[in-house]
Each structure stands twice: as C-alpha cells, then as structure tokens.
Specification:
By secondary structure, the chain is mainly alpha-helical. It is 38% helix and 9% strand. It is built from 2 helices and 2 strands.
C-alpha cells in the first residue's frame, strides 16, 4: 500500500481499518496524516517525494472508504509543514 523508492504493496495494513473505525465513531474529528522517511545516502528530495506519496495514499484510502474529504490533511516532515502546525 505504501510506495517506497523500490516497491509498493497492495496490502492494506490492519491499522488503517482501525483508524477508519475510529474516524467513523468520531465524525467531527479532523486529523493530520504524517509519513516519515529518511535515507542515509543524502537524497532528501527523493525522501520527501516518498513521504508525500505515503501520506496521500493513506488519505486517499480513507476517503475511498467513506471518510469525508477535508477531514484528513496529508503532511510530511518537510520544512514547509512546520508553519502549518503553529
């Protein structure tokens, strides 16, 4: 389910089902979906792209399963997100 630099999987982690159930039980809740990836070879741009794709994949899956658009915000650990959290 989560894209990486090397592969992606079509398997859905069990935790997503649990998050989906929680969001259905709490319809007013809005959450930030974060992803983190860091390699040791210094390819920050590639890491940021994978991070964005992972967070968006989770948001897309949850929305496809009934979570209203706008309740989820895909985020990553890149610098421009720091201002969003304030």
């Amino acid at each position: 389910m989560f894209p990486t630099a090397r592969r992606s999987s079509s398997k859905t982690p069990r935790i997503l089902g649990e998050v989906l159930a929680y969001l259905r039980e709490n319809p007013a809740l809005v959450i930030d979906v974060e992803s983190h990836k860091m390699t040791y070879n210094g390819q920050a741009e590639a890491d940021e792209e994978v991070t964005r794709m992972r967070a968006k994949t989770v948001v897309d899956w949850l929305e496809a399963h009934g979570v209203a658009t706008g309740r989820l915000r895909p985020l990553g650990p890149w610098p421009e997100q720091a201002n969003h959290r304030k």
